[in-house]
Amino acid sequence: MASVQQKIIIITAPSGAGKTSITHHLLRQFPQLAFSISAATRQARAYEQDGKDYYFITLEDFQHKIQHNEFVEWEMVYEGKYYGTLKSELQRLWDNEQCPLLDIDVKGAIHVQQQYPETSLSIFIEPPSIDELKRRLLSRGTETEETLQARVNKASYELSFKNHFDKVILNDDLPRACAEAEAIIREFLS
Prior knowledge:
The protein has helices at 19-29, 59-67, 87-95, 106-115, 130-140, 145-159, 174-189; strands at residues 8-12, 33-35, 38-40, 54-56, 71-78, 81-86, 99-104, 120-126, 167-170. It is α/β, with parallel strands linked by helices. Helix 1 packs across helix 7 (174-189) and helix 5 (130-140) packs antiparallel against helix 6 (145-159). The radius of gyration is 16 Å and the shape is globular. The model has no long low-confidence stretch (mean pLDDT 90).
């Protein structure tokens, strides 16, 4: 098996499926894991910090980095909103002898696992249903009717890719889903 420095763990899911909650749980359980900070062109939310939650960069800087092949993966996730994983971020974590844990969208996750087929583990977090996903998104209080519908439509599409990933975890009970993810990662890191 590859050393920790070469391994990558990818957590992906439709928005609202519980991917971030499971990611935070895994980071608390495994000190050798480190959150891979994505680059984003959107504005930071009130509770987010640059260099901790995301690297918030301008659209121009993002496009410059695309042209210079500085991303492992990048996507325009929503109109005008780019997200991506910088090669330098993965290298930073490997240099610290940590295993990058990526919390990224479905298309990006497919790109990363294609580039690191021998050393990556990809986990798709599946919501119990589209109706439950919609309820979770509504409970956040951050969605307009238009953005909610866009996220629900995207989620329906993303669910069609779940079989492209190494493991699928149904998140109908968060503690159980966290325990399942923990067991999968413990085996991968051993």
